[in-house]
Amino acid sequence: MKENHGRQPWVVRIRGVSGLILGSGTLLGDRHVLTCAHVVDRAVGRAAAGADPPADRVQVELVRLPRLPARSAGVVAGGWVPAGREGQGDIALLELSDPVPGRPGAELRRLPLWEKHVYAFGFPKEFRDGETVHAVLHGGTGPANEWMQMDPSPAAPGLRVRSGFSGAAAVDNETGYVVGMVVSYYSGPASGRSFMIPVETLLNHLPLLQAWVVGDSSVDRELTSVGGGREDGEVARRTAEFFARRSPQNVLVVVTGPPTSTASATVRRAVVLSNRQLRPSSVDPAAAERDPSLPPLGSIDLALDAAGKPPRELAARILGFVGSTGPPAEAAAGDLLGDASPRSLLIDGVDESSDPKALVDDVVGPIVDRAAERDLRILVGFRSPAVGLRLALLARRIAGLREAEHLAREHRRRIEARVRGLPPAKPRASQLRIRLTALLAAAREPDPGPLLEHLAAMEQGTDRALHEVTALRHELTARATEHQQLRGLLDAHRARAVAGGLTEHRGTGQSYRRAHDLLWAGPCDLADAADAVHAYAEAVRRALDDRREGAPS
After folding, report:
1. Which of 74-109 are b and which e, b meaning 16 or more Cβ less than 10 Å from the residue's Cβ?
2. Contact, 357 vs 377, CB < 8 A?
3. What is the distance between the alpha carbons of residues 385 and 368, in angstroms, rounded to a whole number?
4. Considering only CA atoms, which of 241, 347, 251 is closest in space to residue 302?
5. Do 287 and 243 meet the contact criterion of CB atoms below 8 Å apart?
6. pLDDT greater at residue 419 or residue 340
7. Sheet holding 344-348, edge to edge
8. Do residues 33 and 22 make contact, with C-beta atoms less than 8 angstroms apart?
9. Lower CB count within 10 Å: N or C terminus of the chain?
10. Does the pLDDT value for residue 255 go beyond 90?
11. N- to C-terminal Cα distance for the chain?
C-alpha cells in the first residue's frame, strides 16, 4: 500500500480571494493543477458556473512542500469544462505562475474500479491542514452515469468526504496511482456517500490530461475502429445484456467473423460505447439507458484484440492493467491471471493469436476457471468457428464443473448434519461430459452436421451449470454462517444471563434449553432456531428488568 500523503508532494490546497480554503487539487508535472471547475468558480467569487473560464486567478498552496511559497494559477486554454446542464464535467486544469522544482506531480492511471479501495485528502473547515478519508468504489452513478460512487470504508466508517474535498485525488490504496477526482458528496443524514470522476471520464472531457496518464489504454487500438456500416442486432443485444449483467452468464463465446463482418463491427461498437473515455458526447444518456443494444458506460473494464499477438503479451497486458506486480505470463502465472483478471474482460480474435492453443490454455483458461466463482464477465471472441479451440475450452470448463459439483456435495454433506431444508444439488457434469464426447466424435467426421449449433448450446449450458453450482455453494456457506452466528448469539445472551444472576431462573432456563436443543441436538430449521434465540434474548431482557425493579423470580 502506498498510502502516505507525506511522501506525495502533489497535494495542493486552493484558496479564494477572501482567503477561505475552498477545495483541494492535484499537481500534475511541475506547473499544472487538476481540480473541479466549481472550486475555481467559488474561489474567484462567481456564484454560478460560467461557460467561459474566469479571468481571475486563484491561490494554490503546496501543502506537502511547505518551504515553497504559494503560487497563483489560472485556467489553461482548453482546460475549462464547467458542469453541464445535468452535472457532467465540472473539471478545470490550472497553470501555476511558477513551476515547482523537481516535477513532483501525480500520475493518473486507468484501473478497474469496482470495489477498489481508495483514499482522498481534503480540507474540511475543521481541519485546515487536511484529513484523509478512506472509501470503497461501487457502481456508476451521477449525471450520465459519469461518476463512481464512494462509500465509507468499513475500516474507518466515521470518516467521510464533505465540503473541502472537491477536486481531491482519489488514490488507489494498492498502487498509489490517482484513479479519479472527488467531485461531490451526499449531505443526507448518516450517509457518508460521495462521488468521484474516473480518469477515463476526465480524459473524455479533457484530452489535455493524457500528458500525465501512465499505463496502457483499456481498449486496444484495433477495437476502436467502429465505422458506419451495418450491425448485427442479435450480437448487439446479447453483448449489451451480458455486460449489463442482465443475464446469469459468466462467459460468452461469440464468433465475430473477420474484422469486416457486421458481427465484428457490432462488438467493436459495444467496446467503444461502453468505454468512459471513448464514448462520443453525441450519445444521449437518457436514450442510451433505454437502448437494449448499448452496454452501460464503464461496463467493460478491458478490451483486447489477440490477433497476431503472443499469449505472453496478452497476459502481461491484463496483469499490467490491473496494476499487478507479479510475473507476466510465466508458467506459474495462470493462478495469478485467474485471481487478478478485471471484473469484465473482452478478448477478440483468440483464434488469430500467434499461438491460439497456448492462449486458451495459459491465459483464457485460467481466467474462465475463476469466472463463476468471482462473478466475472468474460467475452471470448473467435474470428472463425474455431471448433477445436472451443471444444478444448469446453472440456476444461466441464472438468471444472465436475470438481465444483464434488465440492458442493461435500459442503452440503457437512452442513446437513446441522441445518435442514438445504437447497438441492443438480449434478450436470456427467451428462455434459457424455455430450462432449459425442461432439468430439462429430468433429472428426467429414460431415459434422449441426455441430456448431450443438457446440454453442453446450457452451451456454455449461456456463449456466457453473453459475448455478457456484450460487449453490454460496447459499450453503450462508446457511452454515447463519447457524454459527445463531450459536454465538445464544452464547452471548447466556453469558449476559449468568452475569445478571439468572442461572437458576426457570423462565429463561426453559427458553434457553429450547434454543440450545435446536442448535446442537441435530439438524434444525434456521427460522425456528432464530425465533428460539430471539425468544431467549427477550426472556433474559424481561428477567433482568424484573430483577432491577425488585420483582420475584
Report:
1. bbbeebbbbbbeeebbbbbbbbbeeebeeebbbebb
2. no
3. 19
4. 347
5. no
6. 419
7. 251-255, 377-382, 344-348, 302-305
8. no
9. N
10. yes
11. 57
